[in-house]
Design a protein that fits this description.
Layout: E1 11-14, E2 17-21, H1 28-45, E3 49-53, H2 62-77, E4 81-85, H3 89-98, E5 106-108, H4 111-117
Length: about 130
């Protein structure tokens, strides 16, 4: 695990996938710092995938949408696939009502589905510790 990005957003590495999230306090300064840190980490860690969890976002406005699209484009240019996970139904409804399209942004219902889409599979182990 690594220290939080300069904007205070942690970026964790799981194999060749970086996992991070966005919080409601996304302003210009935080967005720039987060974008710089994430793109730097994609390059230095050789990440092939990035999971951005937005389940804590209650509102996605045009600024956040633009930030997600720009992050996705930058990550792709660096060879990484980005999946945005955890969009709440009210957020999806608001985006549609405002006519905001997350062009080029791949989404998943939750973090588990996003990780599975990137090739990660949870091993199911029986409760109680195994056969016996």
């Amino acid at each position: 695990m690594s220290a939080p990005a300069s904007g205070g957003v942690p970026i964790l590495r799981l194999g060749d996938v970086l996992v991070t999230g966005l919080l409601n306090e996304l302003d210009d300064t935080t967005a720039v710092a987060f974008t710089e840190e994430l793109t730097s980490r994609i390059s230095s860690d050789g990440a092939r995938g990035v999971l951005i969890d937005i389940s804590r976002l209650e509102i996605v406005d045009s600024f956040v949408a633009r930030t997600l699209m720009e992050l996705t484009t930058m990550a792709r240019l660096l060879g990484a696939r980005v999946i945005v996970a955890g969009m709440r139904p009210p957020v999806a409804i608001t985006l549609v009502e405002l006519g905001i399209q997350l062009t080029g942004v791949e989404t998943a219902l939750n973090a588990e589905q996003a990780m599975a889409a990137m090739g990660w599979h949870q091993s199911l182990q029986p409760a109680g510790g195994g056969p016996g």
